[in-house]
Specification:
The protein is mostly helical. It has 13 helices and no strands.
């Protein structure tokens, strides 16, 4: 019996390692193509020389370091952050439809940024980032409060419906501010989603918060794995469900706020990626969360690359690509759940 368990565990570890190695290879390839391809395509050798033998006299090298490379890094940050948020939310709430976009969190952060654009013209990037996290917190609180109303209390169905309602509410507020204060085309493009404006100075500000948030998510992964078994089981195993849910919520708010300020309120990354990862490596969240970070980054880089290439030399917002993929998948998940929304 013990031998069979050890063999199954060894096979599981091998599968996990294989998919992580494959994911790293695919991510390296996608990142290289993301740097090389765009309105002006370059060879991979040019990318290599720009990264390791930078020459200020070469225009392509300057283009790569000033625009292409920070954009790719931003895709990595956004993709991994949103995917980890989705994995944590799906694990702690046991809701297969949980996602920071569907739960209203991204819209709350987006409204805070619109508020800053309208009323705080002298704001710093750090101020905007903190406002985004605060807006995400307010939206989360409202979503959970509305979902908990009624005799039956909070259910996965109510949580999704409350999240969609809050998303529409804050989306309407953002549009009002955009029209009222003439925030312009930049606001509309940012709302659709895109990392074209990413700069090294901004990434340097968010990098420490991203590192802390991702490290905290990995540290919480064993507790999330226990929470995914159910609140009663988690309590029986000595886990404090309220504490874990509270810490997980803080991590989700921070990572979502970072993502929104970089790319805008894009959705479905956190919905799709954990499902793909669970299909590949199983339901153990000690593995699902780190794998989601890797494959979420891969999804974001690939989607941004497709967004640049499908209508060259014009840019397609990355949010459009995610929506085209995510909406059919969301409908598929709803059908698979076979639940009636109340």
């Amino acid at each position: 019996m013990n031998a069979s368990r050890l063999k199954a565990r060894a096979e599981s570890n091998s599968v996990f390692a294989l998919y992580m190695i494959a994911g790293c290879g695919l991510l390296a390839l996608a990142s290289a193509l993301s740097i090389a391809l765009g309105a002006a395509s370059m060879s991979l050798s040019t990318v290599w020389h720009a990264l390791f033998r930078f020459d200020t006299a070469v225009t392509e090298h300057q283009l790569i370091w000033t625009f292409r490379l920070p954009r790719t890094v931003a895709d990595l940050v956004v993709g991994s952050s949103l995917a980890v948020c989705g994995a944590i939310m799906q694990g702690t709430t046991r809701n297969a439809l949980a996602d920071s976009g569907l739960m209203g969190i991204s819209s709350g952060a987006a409204f805070s940024i619109a508020f800053c654009l309208a009323f705080l013209p002298e704001r710093t990037y750090l101020t905007t980032m903190l406002a985004a996290c605060a807006g995400a917190g307010v939206a989360t609180g409202l979503t959970y409060f509305i979902a908990s109303l009624g005799r039956r209390g909070m259910t996965p169905q109510r949580l999704v419906l409350a999240g969609i309602s809050i998303s529409m509410l804050f989306g309407a507020f953002s549009q009002y501010l955009s029209i009222r204060f003439r925030l312009g085309q930049s606001m509309a493009y940012w709302t659709a989603g895109g990392t074209a404006g990413a700069r090294w100075e901004e990434l340097a500000i968010i990098a420490p918060f991203f590192a802390i948030g991702l490290s905290a998510a990995l540290a919480l992964s064993p507790s999330v794995a226990v929470m995914s078994l159910g609140e009663q089981v988690a309590s029986g195993l000595g886990t404090n469900p309220r504490l874990i849910r509270g810490l997980s919520t803080v991590v989700v708010l921070v990572l979502t706020g970072l993502s929104v300020i970089v790319v805008g309120p894009v959705g479905f990354v956190g919905l799709i990626t954990p499902h793909i990862v669970r299909y590949l490596i199983g339901v153990d969240y000690r593995r699902v969360i780190p794998a989601s970070a890797l494959y979420g980054a891969l999804l974001a880089v690939s989607a941004d690359l497709v967004a640049r290439l499908i209508n060259r030399p014009f840019e397609t917002p990355i949010g459009v690509i995610f929506a085209v993929i995510g909406v059919p998948y969301f409908l598929y998940l709803v059908r698979q759940q076979r639940r009636e929304f109340e």
